[in-house]
């Protein structure tokens, strides 16, 4: 648990209640287990829920909120749920295939790669959302990757990237991505680092909606990356959690992945429908592995099934059927894509409003505010320090991540001015 979380927890809990002391018991098998560190984002969200301040703001957890600060259920999802219910009430509850609901896996592949001949020499399986896809991919690599058991991850990155690969005994290397001083993409550090990575190792990329920095590479830069990856014989592992929420266009957000496919890279792609369909608790995702031949894909699938059966036997059919219904129904898919575009437009509008207000009321920090519209997707990597974040939480009940990551979707017409006024107070 970070110092910030420790400090804030004391506002809501008594230390003795939080860490109860018990007498040692010789027959207790679990007596020496230490308290695990809390997930920093989930902990902040929990503290927000306990806060009784009517003006509290939650800018921490990465879920989309409406302008009324409510969770958003896609209309296409509601319509698909009704269709799925009408179908499922006549079906049994037998085990589904280990690889998942086939219409879902087919459409998940096509959503990433389009109508590609690569589908014949690839394998896609349904997973427990994006995290489950990452875990399954890491488990597969842990058993079968013949290169160095090293994975290189951007600095910064989502903390679960590190946890998952460490669970499968990978050594972790960090490549530079964000320049804290200039508050922008560290192009020089990035290319220097990936040029020096161990040959024949794994490199993890976020092709859009980078968490937490919200910084994206240009297509020209991705071309340069592809050449380095090819020369060093690296295996690219793409994690795409915010597909469609950055540009509002599902094809544009996967251009880096399709570029690598055009260049002939073998690769792994973990995909989530938690964010871009609002299915946070339904846990639907996919894992795709590109192979060199149909025969190789068949063998890879057999080993993935062996891993799946040892973890959860099979994924839930109903959630897979829900996503497949949206992707296969022309009208529902068009409605879903329109919703994604509207969300992206609203996020961009909020970014512009926030930057304009901060430039007006805090002009001394204008260099910091330019990042608001330079970055893309649901997050703003604000550059606020941990002490400033602590003050926002303790004094104003404005909850955001310790690293200064702000969920732009949590800013609404009703609270954006309050947020700007508070930033002005703590910075000036």
TrEMBL record:
CDD domains: AAT_like
Pfam family, one: Aminotran_1_2
EC number(s) given by UniProt: 2.6.1.1
Gene3D superfamilies with a match to the protein in the record: Aspartate Aminotransferase, domain 1 (3.90.1150.10), Type I PLP-dependent aspartate aminotransferase-like (Major domain) (3.40.640.10)
Keyword Membrane attached: no
UniProt cofactor(s): pyridoxal 5'-phosphate
Transmembrane regions listed in the UniProt entry: none
GO MF annotation: an example: L-aspartate:2-oxoglutarate aminotransferase activity
GO cellular component: mitochondrion
Any one Gene Ontology BP term: L-aspartate catabolic process
Signal peptide: none
Keyword Transferase among record annotations: yes
Keyword list, A-Z: Aminotransferase, Pyridoxal phosphate, Transferase
Tree of life domain: Eukaryota
Residues of the Aminotransferase class I/classII large domain: 55-422
Family annotation (InterPro entries): Aminotransferase_I/II_large, Asp_trans, PyrdxlP-dep_Trfase, PyrdxlP-dep_Trfase_major, PyrdxlP-dep_Trfase_small
Assigned protein family: Belongs to the class-I pyridoxal-phosphate-dependent aminotransferase family.
Oligomeric and partner information: Homodimer.
NCBIfam families reported for this sequence: PRK09257.1
Protein name per UniProt: Aspartate aminotransferase, mitochondrial
Organism of this sequence: Sarcoptes scabiei
